[in-house]
Amino acid sequence: MRHQRRIPQLSLPADQRKALLRGLTTQLIREGRVTTTKARAKALRNETERMITLAKDGSLASRRRAIGYVYDKQLVHALFEKAQERYGDREGGYTRIVRTTPRRGDNSEMAIVELV
Description:
The chain is an alpha+beta fold. The chain has a single domain, classed as CATH 3.90.1030.10. The protein is 54% helix and 14% strand. The chain has helices at residues 14-31, 38-57, 60-69, 73-87, and strands at residues 33-37, 95-99, 110-115. Strands 1-3-2 form a three-stranded antiparallel beta sheet, with helices on one face. The model has no long low-confidence stretch (mean pLDDT 94).
């Protein structure tokens, strides 16, 4: 049973789901905003906030965990340099999900995820 599981399955096998979320997290940290489906946006929010929390901690162990998750090593170093000054006074809620118009092909709910 899947009681109290944090990440939705997104109709993908575990390895594909993890790769998708890693890619979306990397893209969100790099660009600052990503357009995706609403279900993926909600799953992405958890992973991105976890990476920013690691960056706020700033320890070597946190840096290594973030490097193991995010695809771009230089992006992790830049995140760790800027996270404390950008999110130092904020206790979570680093991302914002804004719903947009449904996708034209299959009418699925779309959303924009952006860093606050």
